[in-house]
From TrEMBL:
Signal peptide: none annotated. This is Transcriptional regulator. InterPro entries: Cro/C1-type_HTH, HTH-type_reg/antitoxin, Lambda_DNA-bd_dom_sf. PANTHER family: ANTITOXIN HIGA-2, MERR FAMILY BACTERIAL REGULATORY PROTEIN. GO terms for molecular function: DNA binding. The lineage of its organism: Bacteria, Pseudomonadati, Pseudomonadota, Betaproteobacteria, Burkholderiales. SUPFAM superfamilies: lambda repressor-like DNA-binding domains.
């Protein structure tokens, strides 16, 4: 038989109850679908940049990345990682977002 710490188990329950009252979302209380990142190939990266009407160096500066990275993405020698693909997709949906990112 293992020793249980009833007090800590009760406190954990009270903490969970308080979190639930404040609307805290946890994996115990909700299901979060795992989605694959958006496909961001060379043509799509170029299309996003051209939609903004900026050069590769300007696009890179606004995203705070190296211009060579943008060039590699657009030439297809490298692909944006999942986070970059999500960011580029958000910018594609809302072009004004690039200015907010640049201002951070």
């Amino acid at each position: 038989m293992t020793d249980r710490n009833i007090f800590s188990e009760l406190m954990e329950g009270f903490d969970a109850l308080e979190d639930a009252r404040h609307g805290k979302v946890t994996l115990k209380t909700s299901e979060v679908e795992i989605k694959a990142p958006p496909v961001m190939d060379a043509a799509r990266v170029r299309a996003v940049r051209e939609k903004l009407r900026v050069s590769q160096p300007v696009f890179a500066r606004k995203l705070r990345t190296n211009p060579q990275t943008i060039k590699n993405w657009e030439q297809g020698t490298a692909k944006p990682n999942a986070q970059a693909a999500i960011l580029l997709s958000l910018i594609d949906r809302n072009p004004k977002l690039i200015e907010e990112i640049a201002a951070l």
